[in-house]
Amino acid sequence: MRLLGNHGGSVLALCLASVCAVGAGLAVLIAAAILAPAEGREAAAGSMPVVAAAVAAALMVTIPAMIAGLSLRALRRRAGRAEARLAALEAMLAARDLVAIAANADGTVHYAIGLEGVDAAGHSGASAAHLIAALIEPADDALPATLAGMAARALGGERLSREFSALGPVPPAVAAPGDATEMEGGARYLQVTVGPFADGICYLLEDVSARRTEAERAMERVSLLSRALDRAPFGILVIDEGGMVQEANSAFRRLLGGQHANGRLFVEVIAEADRAQVDAMIERVNNSGEAAGPIDVRLTGDMERTVALYASQAALPRESGRGLVVHVVDATERKRLEAQFAQSQKMQAVGQLAGGIAHDFNNMLTAIIGFCDLMLQRHPVGEPSFADAMQIKQNANRAAGLVRQLLAFSRQQTLAPRVIDMTELLAELSNLLRRLLGERVELTVVHGRDLWPVKADPGQIEQVVINLAVNARDAMPEGGRLTIQTGNFTADRPYAIAEETMAPGEYVAITVSDTGVGIDRETLTRVFEPFFTTKEVGMGTGLGLAMVYGSIRQLGGIVHAHSDGLGKGASFTLYLPRSSESVQQPTDLAEHEGTPTDTTGGGRVLLVEDEDAVRLFAARALRAKGYEVTEARTGEAALEILADRPRIDLLVTDMVMPKVDGATLIRQTRKQMPDLPVICISGYTQESVAQEVEALPRVYFLPKPFSLKQLATKVKAAIESAASERA
């Protein structure tokens, strides 16, 4: 249009002149025909051919000129519209920060839009690839060839797009607003798009630095989130509609023991017994669309993992269907603690029952043994009644041993702990163990070097080792080898041992192992349950290992049972806390003062016992030995007797009584008579009561059941000890 605009006026003027000339010629002919005389008309008629020829000539010039003028006007209108469209295109490209370069088929620049600041006109006819390469990276000699290759493919009908790192000066139209200061170092990215255009190709250049930066930031966020999910302390996996695992994080793979889960059916990693409830949960989530869980299931493999599953629906990327996101939380420790708590509750309940029964039973055994002793004093050896009385006493003592096991299990037996050397204790016990084991069982004791001391009741430890040895003997009916090994063990962190947790510290370990029939896995979880036994009826009470468990727990230790299976033997390891004190020699009153052969004595004794049979036996026994005995059935009655301020030399009281118990009675009595010796008698001593009175001086314990001789010996030793201290 710019080229046509220079000649449009001349063409129109020529057309107008031609029209005027034709009109004038026609007017002359018409006037001559009308106004001329006859003779003149003949002359005019002779000139008509000339005029007609002139008019024809004028028309031949005028009509094309008129047609040309009309065509030029149409072209001018088209050019105006093209310029308007071109301006709109330029505005659109500028709004999108684009540069357009139209190139001929030979790759030369035909037209460029948006190259403000760049001499586009000066590059007309130049190589478009070199022009664009100069905008991207002038120093890259291989870049023009790359762009030329893209142009060749575009001429074939393809549309290509590629991003380049632009280190050269980016045209202002291409540079995104505000990005120049944000891009440190000046590095930018240009996207070059090439496609067919008319008879050539067209390049579109766009600064995608901001978009690429945002995409990179988004990818960094996605990568960070992906790493966070992969390193989560719980398992996360995605399964499709067919139940196939598509993705799984590291925590879930660790739950599987390092196995890969992708491409496997989810139910394949679930224990067969729990697959039904997993299928039901998945179906429930798919039908309702709501999240479900938790459910506790076991995983396959050798690690015996229990996990809690949570499931919810999720749209899968690049998939038409929906899948599930499953969160897997390791519940092994929680289930172990739940089992441990349930076992503890069960043991505590049975222990309370056993302790209550044992206390009442000890009262009856005390009366039975005591009255047998009184009977034996009247019926010496040789009389028919002597053998019967001895049978009664022996069976009562056997029953007393069973009660001690009950009390040991319930952790309520009366103890006399002291710091002991396990090496010496086991060395002394080994002779007894060899007699118990018999000739077909070989006993080997391996003592650890520099063994640490332990604070415990020696009799309690001996009973624990004896129970384990007898259990091992019964597990080796054809004979075998029993090994007792000791050593020091340091726990530098908490250790999970079966259903127990060992606190950090120093321990003395005693391991009793055998080569017997072994223990299967199911039985191994129940060996410490009270009254549980695998022996034949009449061969065991089921309290041996329960007593071991209760005794070791009472000492603050841990007992661990282990077996590799049937036919592979078994081992029991006792972990006892190390004592910071030095080894002590026995300080029992009878041993300290010497056991008197003469148990007679004298003095006033206040006897407080709520069990009538025990009180009657003890009173008769002490009176027979020469003591003056005042009886009281309850603690209140004893306080009333003491209110009269009688002189007494010894207080003998039961510890467990209604209302005023033994500890309260001792404290009230000591207010009046601070130096009064006290003997506490009880079937068991609760820890809270023992702690209240054990720090008081001249307080001695006599556990039930006791014999006449034990009672008389303890009473005489206590009175003589108090008298010697006053002297």
From TrEMBL:
It is an enzyme of class 2 (transferase). Residues 221-257 form the PAS domain. Its EC number is 2.7.13.3. SUPFAM superfamilies: ATPase domain of HSP90 chaperone/DNA topoisomerase II/histidine kinase, CheY-like, Homodimeric domain of signal transducing histidine kinase, PYP-like sensor domain (PAS domain). Keywords: Membrane, Phosphoprotein, Transmembrane, Transmembrane helix. It comes from the Bacteria. It catalyses: ATP + protein L-histidine = ADP + protein N-phospho-L-histidine. This is histidine kinase. It comes from Marivibrio halodurans.
